[in-house]
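Continuing the series of single-chain predictions for the mutant panel. This is the parent chain; the variants come on the following pages.
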Amino acid sequence: MDREADVTATVSEIDRLHSQLSRLEDMFPGYRTEIVEGAIVMSPVKPHHNQTIWKLWSAIGAQLSEEWGFLSDVTIPFDDANEFCPDLAVIPKREAEKNLSAYSPDLIELAVEVVSPGSVRNDYEIKDRAYARRGIPHYLIFDPYKAHCVTHWNPSPDGYLGRDTLPYGKTVVVETGIGKLSLDTGDLPVDPSAPGPPVTQ
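Parent structure:
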């Protein structure tokens, strides 16, 4: 197959995935859908997921200057095989106000994902690498099932060089290029299956 045919095949495949994605979103409300490694991935969304997003949106928004805005569950195309929809992404407000259906990952200063049962590998592994390779300065994972937050910074082609894990109840402090953010995790919802705090004797 020549180069032109390769390009045509790739475009055709992406169009097919978009068509399937649109149909699935209509057929299965309450599921989050993304294109990950060339496949459509659907994750059920539970109340704790949305509650965490709302609390973080409010907490982060209160600390940002008026120059910055949010995206939530909006398509971010990374390459031909991956189109992610971050739970929260901080981008310039003037860009967010354009109200587009897709945005460049190069606009993102901070990406936030809230783990759901079907997104564990995507959030901890695939997006970790993809966000770092694209140079997104900070990536935060909030996990209601493990009751912890994982912070990532210093992106490189091999992934984030800096990371830390903080249990819920601690204050997460993120020193970003757009300001210092302090996030109290003490009131974030925790799934009943999450492990409790260690027992002291």
